[in-house]
Give the backbone structure.
Amino acid sequence: MALLGNLSNYKNLGLLVIRIGLGIMFIYHGYPKLMGGTQNWKDIGESMKYVGIHFWPVVWGLLAAVTECFGGFLLIIGLAFRPVCILLFINLVVAALMHLGTGGGLGDAAHAIEDAIMFAGLIFIGPGKYSVDKK
C-alpha cells in the first residue's frame, strides 16, 4: 500500500515505542514483586521447579523481580539491551512453564509466551538508534 509505504522510514521510532511500552509494563509488574519481600520471592522462585531447579527459591524469585523491574527500566533507555532481552526471555519461559505446569493451559501461559517471542525477536533486532546503546 502506497499510503503506508513510507512508514518503513520510522523503524527506529517503532522500536522506541515497543521499548517504552514493554519497559513500562515490566516495571509495573516487577516493582510489586520486588517490594513483596522474602515470602513473595520464595513463592515466585519456586517456579524454577518447572525447569528442574529446586534450590534457592528466594534467590531465584528476587532475581526474577529484579530482572522485571530494572530490566524494564533498561529497556526504556536502551542500555544493555540484548542482555536484558535474554534475561527477560528466560524469565518469561519459566513463567510460561509454570502456568502450563500448574494446569492453567495455554490460555494462562499465552501472555508469557507472547512476550517471550517478542524478546526473542528483539535480541536480533537491537534497540534502534534512539537508545543509549545507539545500535
